[in-house]
Amino acid sequence: MGIKPLYDRVVVRRLEAETTTDSGIIIPDSAAEKPSQGEVIAVGDGIALDNGKLRALAIKPGDRVLFGKYSGSEVKVDGQELLVMKESDILAVIEHSQIEEKAA
Q1: Quick one: which of 9, 11, 33, 90 could link to 41 by a disulfide (CB 3.0–4.6 Å)?
Q2: Gene3D superfamilies from the xrefs (predicted)?
Q3: Would you say residue 3 lies in a domain?
């Protein structure tokens, strides 16, 4: 991937949207909302503090995150649609144990 975000910005790839409900109803693409979950692809070096030093980000590549519906800017890189957003736009990190429990 040829993209490196600056400072406190993060590059996120949206996860695929659910196409069926829990009861089995199929949701057409035109009615589906964009997912608010994604996987972090790249992170910047950190946020610049008043003393000139950088504070490293709490997010790292590979993290699965939740973000607001209208967060970030959509960009297309190497044919992939990605989001570039500030670390503060990320609402939460989904821990791997919660993902595995849902899948089972």
Answers
A1: 11
A2: GroES chaperonin
A3: no
Q: Report the C-alpha dihedral over residues 20, 21, 24, 26, rounded to 10 degrees.
A: -40
Question: Could you give the count of Cα atoms lying within 13 Å of 89 in the half-sphere of its Cβ?
Answer: 20
Evaluate whether residue 93 is within a structural domain. Answer: yes
**78 Cβ contact list (under 8 Å, min separation 6):** 1, 2
Determine the Cα–Cα distance for residues 103 and 91; give it in Å rounded to an integer. Answer: 22
Residue 83 structure tokens: 């989001």
- CATH number of the structural domain spanning residue 86: 2.30.33.40
- Tell me the two tokens of residue 93: 């990190």
For residue 41, what are the domain limits? Answer: 9-17+31-103
pTM above 0.85, yes or no: no
